[in-house]
Amino acid sequence: MTLVSIPANPVPDNVVTGTVKTIDGAELRFARWSPTSGRKGTVCVFSGRSEMIEKYFETVRDLLERGFTVAMIDWRGQGHSSRRLRDPRKGYVRDFADYEIDVETFVQHVVLPDCPPPFFALAHSMGGTVLLRTAYAGKRWFDRMVLSAPMIDLPGRATSFAVRALLRTMRLAAQGGRYVPGGDDVLSGTQPFLNNPVTSDPVRYARNAAILDEDPTLGIASPTVAWADTAFRAMHTFRATNYPSQIRQPILMLAASNDSVVSTPAIEEFAYHLRAARHLVIAGSKHEILQEQDRYREQFWAAFDAFVPGTPLFK
Questions:
Q1: What is the pLDDT of residues 57-79, one digit of tens each?
Q2: 136: left (phi over 0), alpha (psi -120 to 50) or beta
Q3: Total number of domains constituting the chain
């Protein structure tokens, strides 16, 4: 399955693409790249909600330059992986456990057979939620995980009992396939740059919007009631006092001080209770740190290089 290339966002060289099928019938698009020299291991990149492989081409190049093999999938229900609903713009998943099936399928059929160890994970937002769940379940595929603005909780009262109860009621009333109240069918990432919640970099924002202009089938719009219901239930489990202490994997958590999408205080609190974690708040950055201005991305990569073996600054 081909990748979408535009002048502002060409496909990095040395790529292999394809699809794999999960045990429950979802078809996942994958891509993997090999560096021109070196063999430092593999970084598996896991995107956030509504994102696609193409959005991470710049990140892929950054990792290739560090000598890593890079592998990615599109989560089920987004990118060019299979959609379950008749309306492909609706952001839907039955349960967050389904994303864990995606990870296991990807690791077993793409990473382990064709990518060199050691294996590391780099996950953003919703991807961080999924990776924490796999780590809690005892899956130790990755030597270390780097989580960018992981979705531990949402700001304010967005995940209050009243909101969770409303979503649960709607889902029990067979409305799981509807957009969340206030949602619409506008593709995420195509709204005007002004006052957007994800990045302060107009060039990268325009580049990502241009990918969707080139191929709107890559995108999805607002989440459905089902997606929000299972996402809120996943985040609620993180509130258990013993949840982070059961995770023994080394983890680097990076949060953004100007994040209005996920809760930065929740990330800090969760990281504090992990057994083997470091965390850093990048001052001034919005939610999508890897899509931000260079001055914020440079801080991300400095932290990454100090944490992941094989990078120039690792000690």
A1: 999 999 999 999 999 999 999 99
A2: alpha
A3: 1
